[in-house]
Amino acid sequence: MKKIFIKKKIFFENRFPFNNINKSFFFIIDYKLNNFFNNVFLKFLEVNRKEFKVHILKKGENEKSLSTFKKILKDMLVNDIDRNSIIISIGGGVCGDISGFVSSVFLRGVELIHIPSTLLSQIDSSIGGKNGINYFSKNIIGTFYKPKFIYISLYFIKRLSSFVYLCGFSEIIKISIICNLKLFNYLNKKFYFIKKRKYNVLKYIVKKSIKLKLNIIKSDLKERIDKRIKLNFGHTFAHALERYFNYELSHGEAIWYGIIFTIYYSLYLKYTKFTKVYPVLDILYKYKCLNLKKISKIKFKKVRKYIFLDKKNINNKIKFVFFNKVGSVSVKKINYFNIKRIFFDFKKKMFII
């Protein structure tokens, strides 16, 4: 990944940002951004006589599938996409994940550019080279593949619904919990300006979040040691919930619940104290993305199946990231009986955490 650009607008000085790239483009676009592409990008492509083809993704996480993957490959072959082409993804995490996977395996690799359109994809899923598709569970098939560059425009953030926007902060709060008390306190202190989507505040948060993530992954790109795995804080339970609800629960929303579950699990096993937990609970409720009734009736047997399909499962033991205090987490192995006991206790007490 050579460069990450963070800009307020879509274009550099009203010019198409890829003018100097003498290659054909294959766009993979979220369906919600089709009109945006036609109204904004299309004229620049035509004026600059760029060769391009477009594939539109349908709605939701279910698009991260083998069937969608095959449709995109067929579209690329029919349109004579070759190694001298560039794949450009314009969309959220789903779009970026499947575009990255396609780029990494088509002709053993073609260049990739990400233009992430959600806060969550800007600070998390587009950063770090992970990509993949779902098969029985979340991201079971995937590769590590670095994009040529990432173009982040805060233009998109202004157009997100309030719920989608605030759900994006689940990953930002997660990274602050893992390793940065200063960012955590900033997210608390600047909440009014965050709600108002003030540009300077958002730019600082996006840049800081990306920097923190890159610092973690630079020495553990492929998750061979326990450094990068800390980024999975809250994700074991979150991914299982997403699958349980057939991906009708967004990733950002699932992470909120995953953090709550992890906090409770850490308290239960005495890896932390309530005095350390309280600031996290306070900020989670401040961002108002939790609806505990939604997960109060889930069945352990089904959730357990998805939990143990986790990529971190080795010999029926999962590497689980526990909370110690803001700025510090630890990785421990857990088994089936640990998770079963804590799950039922969590369901009883989740409303009084």
UniProtKB/TrEMBL annotation:
Taking every annotated instance into account, which residue ranges of this chain make up the domain 3-dehydroquinate synthase N-terminal?
A: 56-161
Domain 3-dehydroquinate synthase C-terminal, first and last residues per copy: 168-313
Q: Which cofactor does it need?
A: Zn(2+); Co(2+); NAD(+)
Q: So where does this one cross the membrane?
A: 163-184, 254-271
Q: Which UniProt keywords apply?
A: Cobalt, Lyase, Membrane, Metal-binding, NAD, Nucleotide-binding, Transmembrane, Transmembrane helix, Zinc
GO BP term (any one): aromatic amino acid family biosynthetic process
Q: GO molecular function, one example?
A: nucleotide binding
Matches recorded under InterPro entries: Dehydroquinate_synthase (IPR050071), DHQ_synth_fam (IPR030963), DHQS/DOIS_N (IPR030960), DHQS_C (IPR056179)
Q: What name is this protein filed under? A: 3-dehydroquinate synthase
* Pfam families cross-referenced by the UniProt entry: DHQ_synthase, DHQS_C
In the UniProt record, the signal sequence range is none
Give the organism, scientific name: Candidatus Vidania fulgoroideorum
